[in-house]
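If your schedule permits, I should be very grateful for your opinion on a structural question. I have a record of one protein: its chain in single-letter code and its fold written as discrete structure tokens. Kindly check, if you would, that the fold set down in the tokens agrees with what the sequence suggests. I remain grateful for any guidance, and I place the record below:

***
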Amino acid sequence: MKVRTRSSAMIATVCLLASLALTTAAADEPGQRHRAPAVVLTNVATAQNPTAGTAGPGDTVWIAERAGTVRVLSDRGLGGPVLDISAETTTDGERGLLGIAFDKRFAHFYISFTNLEGTSTVDEFAVRHGKIQPKTRRTVLTQTQPYNNHNGGDIKFGPDGYLYIALGDGGSGGDPHGNGQNLDTLLGKLLRIDPRGGTPYAIPADNPFVNDPNARGEIWAYGLRNPWRFSFDAATGDLFIGDVGQSDWEEIDRAPARSNGGENYGWSQMEGTHPFRGGTEPANHVRPIHEYDRAGLGCSVTGGYVYRGDALPALRGQYVFSDYCDGTVRSLKLRKGKVTAVNDLGVNGGEVISFVQDRHGELYVLGLGGGITRLDAA
């Protein structure tokens, strides 16, 4: 999944750390703690190790389960699998079905998973009348992975209609191959492609490195360790990335909607705002808007969304996130792209692996243990 690499810890051990307290600090200066909006987590369904989700046709929410199944959550509850690729993936290490997305017209459905060889794979299906058409399946993009962790795997369509794909640095620990700062590999990057513009895809002409012979044209941003979850603000188009740290610091990065791409988030020269193992801060390093250390035993940031729903007016415009090992749901109050306050929302989602935003802007919290809960007013 998304747990930081530790030489003496396995993913099963990390699972035991859920609900421990987390200490937070802003990247540039400590955020003031204001009175948080009163919220509760309402249980809406239970799934088998849910890992990701997306708003679907109508008022549905589609849920990906790690072993390879996709199920639809509606007002009737969680239905049976509408897609099953469990024979094509594995759940060893941090692998599995890691991301799902629809295009804007719900005409195509995309899945991001690691195949039986561990290769990161993005496949496309046509959708008709809200149903996946299995015979239309095709592979859009693949990337071999040297290790079984730091896969990334999140996929989202941006406001520009292009598909963004997050890939980790390849795994192990400390970025042994230097992928984060290497523009000749897709590992450790956020990609931007046009999946319908070519075979198997097209690279947008305005991507930042498209004319650089020493860089991959698919790259939108780089210097990422394991960008497990990212999102776009539904109101502004701003990009937010929760990048899982190595040893000491978890970070949340931001790029404004007006960005032309090319941001360098620093890994593996930097971990958050701190040089990593004697690294030198790159001149073009884009510092995180928020980071927190391990003092409270938080260990793996789970990026979320800027809340744009109606159920919690006091939360609107705040970035909601959590930590897999801590489980506490928190929010960042923002002003002109800067963090002005850090809020503990007073609820715990367990092993928070992902957030899902429905078409109305309401947020769901996915716990790897199976819980699907919704943020509601207390």
The chain is about 0% helix and 40% strand. Residues 3-31 have pLDDT under 50 and may be disordered. The radius of gyration is 19 Å. The helical segments are 11-15.
